[in-house]
Design brief:
Layout: H1 23-30, H2 47-50, E1 61-66, E2 69-74, E3 77-81, E4 88-91, H3 107-121, H4 136-146
Antiparallel strand pairs: 1-2, 2-3, 3-4
Length: about 170
């Protein structure tokens, strides 16, 4: 039934981030469907990336948003915007736990990522649930309760950190 998935070696790992939005076009293609007929979806067919016929990343940019909070992943960098404190910037490949906030050391990258995030947000429709904010503070407090606290920046001795091209 899912013939396209048989070309992927069992136990293989894929190093780049993907989105749950990619599941629909991937499973559709694996079942023999033509993904060209899928309209107005944000996901991509992952099969060419997983079986090696397509190189690179399926997404150079990934976005997340909930109320005033948002995040953008640009290559190996992740910027998190909060409603009640300064944004935080992490290099995910060298700091997977997101403890080493690099925002103060990379102001141009923060600015570029903010501009990209704002451009994406301007394309979104206002969610209807934003009219009711009764759980807003509860969500912020709950996120902070389970989140590891970042440390102040320390020099990344001996580490090579690649930066995306700024436009």
């Amino acid at each position: 039934m899912l013939s396209g998935l048989s070309k992927i070696q069992a136990g293989s790992e894929y190093p780049y981030p993907v989105s749950t939005l990619d599941l629909l076009p991937t499973f559709f293609a694996a079942a023999g469907g033509d993904t060209q007929i899928l309209k107005n979806i944000d996901g991509v067919d992952l099969l060419p990336y997983l079986n090696g016929t397509e190189a690179g990343r399926p997404h150079e940019l990934l976005y997340w948003k909930k109320d005033a909070r948002a995040a953008i992943r640009m290559g190996d960098w992740k910027l998190i915007r909060f409603p009640d404190r300064p944004a935080e910037l992490y290099n995910i490949t060298s700091d997977i736990q997101e403890l080493d906030n690099m925002a103060a050391q990379e102001p141009e990258l923060v600015r570029s990522m903010f501009k990209t995030l704002f451009a994406w947000e301007s394309t979104l429709e206002r969610p209807r649930w934003l009219l009711q904010r009764k759980f807003e503070n509860y969500d912020i407090d709950r996120m902070d309760m389970y989140r590891k606290k970042p440390i102040d920046h320390k020099p990344t001795q001996g580490k090579v950190i690649l930066k995306p091209q700024l436009h």
